[in-house]
Write a structure and sequence with these properties.
Radius of gyration: 19 Å
Number of strands: 0
Distance between the termini: 29 Å
Structural class: mainly alpha
Mean pLDDT: 88
Strand content: under 5%
Shape: elongated
Number of helices: 6
Low-confidence stretches: none
Helix content: over 70%
């Protein structure tokens, strides 16, 4: 029985749990793509002379989706989920501050910088997601080495 089973019926998490790491990996890769598209849109808005930037909807969706799937993964595998949530929360906070810094750059007519910190932490999230999602690729080799 699951430890939190008396609070919330968690039988469904056992059914969707094995698919969560793959879904997280797909969403993490999509997050990098939407980050680049968001930066392209912000550069276009700055070139058009906008005073404020609009948030890119698909990027907001992938950020929110990563947080929600990470929390679900925490219910499925508590320790692995908490370890995974550390860079995901870092990604969420980084996106917030990078968006605000782009706003300042647009207001002061500065050149827009690339989202370097966001890309770096996105790569870290992809590495963690690949570690959890692609275990079927490397698990047989680890079993040969450590068995």
């Amino acid at each position: 029985m699951h430890l939190l089973g008396f609070l919330v019926p968690l039988g469904w998490i056992e059914a969707v749990g094995p698919v969560l790491p793959i879904a997280i990996l797909v969403l993490a890769v999509a997050n990098v793509v939407t980050r680049l598209l968001s930066h392209r849109q912000h550069k276009q808005q700055a070139a058009d002379g906008a005073d404020e930037l609009d948030r890119y909807g698909p990027h907001v969706f992938t950020n929110t989706g990563l947080v929600i799937l990470g929390l679900l993964f925490t219910l499925y595998r508590p320790i692995s989920g908490m370890i995974f949530m550390i860079p995901v929360i870092g990604l969420f906070v980084t996106d917030f501050f990078e968006y605000e810094s782009r706003e300042v750059e647009v207001r002061n007519d500065m050149e827009l910088e690339r989202p370097k910190a966001g890309i770096a932490i996105s790569v870290l999230v992809i590495i963690y997601a690949a570690y959890y999602g692609l275990q079927f690729l490397y698990q047989p080799y680890l079993d040969l080495i450590f068995a």
